[in-house]
Amino acid sequence: MTDQQPGRHMAAEIDQQPGIFAALVDRRAEIAEVARAIRDRGPRFVLLAARGSSDHAALYAKYLTEVLLQLPAGLVSPSTTTLYGAQPDLTDVLVVSVSQSGGSPDLLEVTESARARGALTVAVTNTPDSPLNGAAELSVDVGAGVEHAVAATKTYSATLLALYLLVDAVRGGDGRHARDLGELARSTLDNSADAVAEAVRRYRFVDRVLTTARGYSLPSALESALKLAETSYLAARAYSGADLLHGPVAAVDAETAVLAVTSTGKGGEALHDVLDAVHGRGADVLAVGSAAAKVSAALRIPVAETAEEVAPVLEILPVQRLAHGLALARGGDPDSPRGLNKVTRTR
């Protein structure tokens, strides 16, 4: 019977993350070698190519690049290469392709094309022998191990941490803000368990969820919406807090659940006015993060406090647990959502 228990893989993989983080930090020197090669090339611009959850990780890397490296960065639209055949000059450009499987044909084509057009290419994957790794000049292994659940959990968070360690090493950092993430992940999972269980009870029958955040935490809001949609089949939509006030807030009312990711730092501070506005419209706000206690909310899920630049590695953990719990409470199996496969092949 145990072998057939719904959600067993996702639950186990969520719980593996503290150990994965600690092991990845221990491999920082390996990632720093890749960073040294990047520094030696001195890129003038950074492009990030990804799909799905990896696209949210790439957005996190975009924030890191623009803030920590002070370099312009952008997200690639793969179809400009795969469908339209665009061939821009990428001399002195760094192209980072992010893919858990390393098997998506469009990312492979983008990487091969970028390298041929002068870019320095780096693959960040959980599959060291993947075609993507073979196509890129440099590679970073996120080291999360095989992921059996369809919904990405440990591969997503490990990708975030690998990207942080890479960018931090490019700027000459020593990884100090990441050193204790294994221990902090364990305490976050343990200390948020009761609040997550309460959130499952509270939101079991909700149909519509908005997720929101600012700054470094915006990728967490996007990933939260994806996890809730793919495991619990909720109509979930993510907005930057700034964009939410520019129109979508008109759709917020007492029937709306709002999941707000808010951690200590400038992004969390910028979300205060947004949450005051949606709370004032009667929305049921669930605040997740190290600054959750400081905002208007009906329910709060605590997360261990860190430097803002690494907060996304931790703040997604209780949301993964929430998605898992809601899926089970609504009669689903988060290990095997309907209509989804582990590797999506697009062009």
UniProtKB/TrEMBL annotation:
<dbReference type="InterPro" id="IPR046348">
    <property type="entry name" value="SIS_dom_sf"/>
</dbReference>
<protein>
    <submittedName>
        <fullName>Glucosamine-6-phosphate deaminase</fullName>
    </submittedName>
</protein>
<dbReference type="InterPro" id="IPR035466">
    <property type="entry name" value="GlmS/AgaS_SIS"/>
</dbReference>
<feature type="domain" description="SIS">
    <location>
        <begin position="34"/>
        <end position="176"/>
    </location>
</feature>
<keyword id="KW-0677">Repeat</keyword>
<feature type="domain" description="SIS">
    <location>
        <begin position="196"/>
        <end position="337"/>
    </location>
</feature>
<dbReference type="Pfam" id="PF01380">
    <property type="entry name" value="SIS"/>
</dbReference>
<dbReference type="InterPro" id="IPR001347">
    <property type="entry name" value="SIS_dom"/>
</dbReference>
<feature type="region of interest" description="Disordered">
    <location>
        <begin position="328"/>
        <end position="347"/>
    </location>
</feature>
<dbReference type="GO" id="GO:0097367">
    <property type="term" value="F:carbohydrate derivative binding"/>
</dbReference>
<dbReference type="InterPro" id="IPR035490">
    <property type="entry name" value="GlmS/FrlB_SIS"/>
</dbReference>
<dbReference type="GO" id="GO:1901135">
    <property type="term" value="P:carbohydrate derivative metabolic process"/>
</dbReference>
